[in-house]
Design a protein that fits this description.
The complex is a heterodimer. By secondary structure, chain A is α+β, with helices and mostly antiparallel strands. Chain A has one domain: Mth169, Chain: A (2-Layer Sandwich), CATH 3.30.1280.10. Chain A contains two helices and three strands, in the order βαβαβ. Chain A has a three-stranded antiparallel β-sheet with strand order 2-1-3, with helices on one face. Chain A is elongated, with a radius of gyration of 16 Å. Chain A starts with a strand and ends with a strand. Chain B is an alpha+beta fold. Chain B has a domain of 232 residues: Phosphoribosyl-aminoimidazole Synthetase, Chain A, domain 2 (Alpha-Beta Complex). In chain B, the strands form five sheets. Chain B has a seven-stranded mixed β-sheet with strand order 8-10-7-11-9-12-13. In chain B, strand 27 and strand 28 form a beta hairpin. In chain B, helix 5 runs parallel beside helix 20 and helix 8 packs parallel to helix 10. Chain B is globular, with a radius of gyration of 26 Å. The chains are: A alpha+beta, B alpha+beta. The interface between A and B is medium-sized, with 12 and 21 residues.
Amino acid sequence: MARVIVDVMLKPEILDAQGQAIARALPRLGFSGVSAVRQGKRFEVEIDGPADETALSDVRKMAETLLANTVIEDYTVTVES
Amino acid sequence: MSLDTVKRAEETPGERQPYAELGMKVEEYERVREILGRRPTGSELAIYSVMWSEHCSYKSSKVHLRQFGTKAPESAALLVGMGENAGVVDIGDGWAATFKIESHNHPSYVEPHQGAATGVGGIVRDIMSMGARPVAVMDALRFGGADAHDTRRVLPGVVEGISHYGNCLGLPNIGGEVVFDPCYIGNPLVNALCVGLLRKDQIKLAVAPGPGNKVVLFGALTGPDGIGGASVLASATFEDESHAKRPSVQVGDPFMEKLLIECCLELYQADVVVGIQDLGAAGVSCATTELAAKGTGGMNVRLDLVPLRDPSLRPEEILMSESQERMMAVVTPDDIDAFMTICAKWDIPATVIGEVTDGGRLVMTWHGETIVDIPPGTAADEGPVYERPFQEPAGQLALNSDTPKRLARPADLRATLLELLGSPNLASKEWVTSQYDRYVRGNTVLAQPADAGVLRISEAMPGAEETKRGIALATDGNGRYARLDPYAGAQLALAEAYRNVATTGATPLAVTNCLNFGSPEDPEVMWQFAEAVRGLADACKTLGVPVTGGNVSFYNQTGSVPIHPTPVVGVLGVIDDVATRVRSGFTGDGDRIVLLGETEAEFGGSEWAHVAHGHLGGLPPKARLASERDLALVLTTAASQGLLTGSHDLSDGGLAIALTEACLAQGIGCAVSLTGDDAFVELFSESSARALVTVRPESFDTFAKLCATHEVPCYSLGTTGGDSLNVKGVLDIPITELRQTHTATLPGIFG
C-alpha cells in the first residue's frame, strides 16, 4: 500500500481566473501582503502494491490521460512518505 | 537584452529578421521595408505580420468578398454594413440589433473547452463594441463522425466550453446546429454567433478622432496568451530561454467579461466614449492600427504602460498577445475622470496608454525609446491583396455525374424513416442544447429545437421605447450540398436560414456569414470559395437581405484534404408583435396540415443518400429563391393575421422528418395522405422552398387564398391528432417509438 500524490497546476503562462479571484478577495477579507495566488488540484492515489517505478509510470499515465489537461496544465508525481 | 528600436533598425539594415517564421512571404517583408524606407523593428514586424495574416487582412478572400458590397440589395434597415466590428440593422421603434458570426475552429481542436469558450467571448465583445447589450448567442458546430474516437474528445469539450462561458455570462443560447461528417475529423467547425440590442442613436464605431484624446486599454491584464508565433521574434532577438515557449492556447474568464459588458454599457450611458474596439486576434496591434487608421490618422502609445499579468513580456509579445476580455477606448481629456470612475466601480483595470494625434503616424515607445513608427493605414487597410488562382476541382464533373438515381430505393419506408431519424445528424440534439441555458434573462420566446430562436425586445435601456417587437435568428449550412455545388450550396444555406426565420412569422432583414474552407493556396479550394461567395451574394440580392459582416476561416484541412466547403449563414429577422410568433410543429388537435411548395425528386447530397448509402454525388436541390421569397411572404403575412397555429420548415430528411419533428414538438400525432404517387420522393426528397404549417379548419380557405395570391403551391395533407404519425397506406409509427429513436442516439454515444 502506498499513496501517490499528483499535483496539477495550470502552466505558469496560462491565465488562472480563479487564482486571480482569490487574490482579489484576500485584501477585502483583511489579508495583506499577498501579490499573487494560483490555484491547482491535488490527487491522492492509493495503490495496492509498492510505489515502484512501474506503479509510478502508471500514475504518470493516469495524469497524462485523465487527471491533467496537458495542453494547459503541468503535473508532478510524488510518493507520500 | 537589447531593445530593437527604430534607431537601431536604421543602423543595422542587414540584420536577419524572422519574417518567414512569422508567416510572412519574402515579398510581403520587402513591401514593409519599402513602406518604412528601412528594415522594420521587431515590434513593427510583429504588427505587420499579424495584421497582414490571412485572419486579419482577408488577403485571399477580399477580392471575392467585395461582391457582398457591389451586389448588396437596397435595404432601408441597414444602419452599419460590412467593415465594422458587426453590422447593425434598424428593427423599428427606435431599436437596432447588431449580430455577427465568427469561427473559432482551430483553437477548439487544440483545446476544445477553452477554444470554444473564448470563441463565445470574442464574438460577444464584437457586439459590445458596437454599443449594444449582448442578448443571446447561438453556435453552429460541425464534428467528425459521431462515433469517431476524436469526436468524443472534441464535442463534449466544445459543448462544455460554450455552456460554461455563455451560462456564466448569463446569455441564453437560442439555437444553432450540430452536424457530423467524417470530413470534419481533425477540423471541427465552431462558429459562434452573438446578437445585441441597442438604441438606434447609440451606435459606437471603431474610430479614434480628435487629437489629444486619450487611448485607454481596459479589462483583463495582458499576458502571454496565444502568442506562439511571437516567441520566434523574442527568442530570435533576445536569445532568452524563457521566451522560447509561449502557449498558443488562450484561456478566458467569463466573469471578467460580464463585468466588461456592464461597465461598457454604463460608459455608453454616460456618453464618455468617442470610439471603441474590442481586442481579438492581434490584440493591441489590431486595436491601435485600426483605431488610428479610421480616426485622425495618428496615435502615440507608451507600450510600457500596458498593464501586464506576466512582467517578463517583451514589447513584441505585448503587441501580439491575444489575452481575452480586453477593450480599447478613445476618450476626451474632459471625460477621462468619469471614464476611470466607472471602470473602478466595476472593478475593471483601466490604463491610459497613449493619445490620438494628427501626425498620420502610429508611434510607440518603450521606456522612452521609439520602437514603432509607421503609417497605421499600411498595416490596417493596405495589406496585401491576392488574386489567387482558382479552378474547378479535377473530380467535380465525375462527382456531379454520379447521381443518386443509381441508388436502390427502399422497400420499407417505415424502416427508412426510423433509420434516418436515429442517425446522428437528424437525431435530437437535446444532449447538447440541454447543457446551455436557453431561457436566462427571461426574453426567450422560441429556442432549440424551434426552427429559429426568437427573443422579445424587453430591455431596461434608459431612453428606449417600449416595443412589442421581437427578433428571430437562425443559422444554417450544408457542407455536402456545397461540396456538390458551392454556388448553389451557399444559396441553399441562406435560403434555409431565411426560411427558418420566416417560419416563426418574422420578416428576414439581414445576413451574417462564416465561410469555412480549406487552404486558399489550393486552386480547387479557391474555386469552391469563389463560387460560394458569388452564389451567396447573388442570393442576397434576390432575397433582398444584405450581408452585414462575418468572417472567413481558411486552412481547415488535414494534409492536402480540405473539409467540405461549409458556408454557414445566419439570418436576422424582425416580428412586429412577438405575440404573433408561430410555434414550432403541431400545437393542437384537429388542425389542418398544409404543405407549402413543390416537391421534385431531389436526392443529391440528401440525408437519405448519406445515411442509407453513404453516397455523395449528383447535384444538390435547386435553390428556388423567388419561391423562397413568396413563401416567406405567405408565412409572415399569415402569422401576422393569426392564421397559423404551428409551422415547421422542410429541410434535411424532407417531409418525413418534418412531419416527425412536428409530431414530437408537443407529442401530437397526425393522419396525412400523400398527394402524388411516389411516396418515397414525397417523403424524403429535400426540395427547397417548402414548409409545413397548420391552420384551424375554418381558416383554411382564407389561408389558401393568401397562398394563391402569392402563387405559393398549397396542399392540404390531413389533420393533427392521435398518438401516431400516420401516413395513410404507407406507414404508421407511434409517437413513443419516434421519440425513443430520436432521443436515444446522442446519449448512446456521448453518455
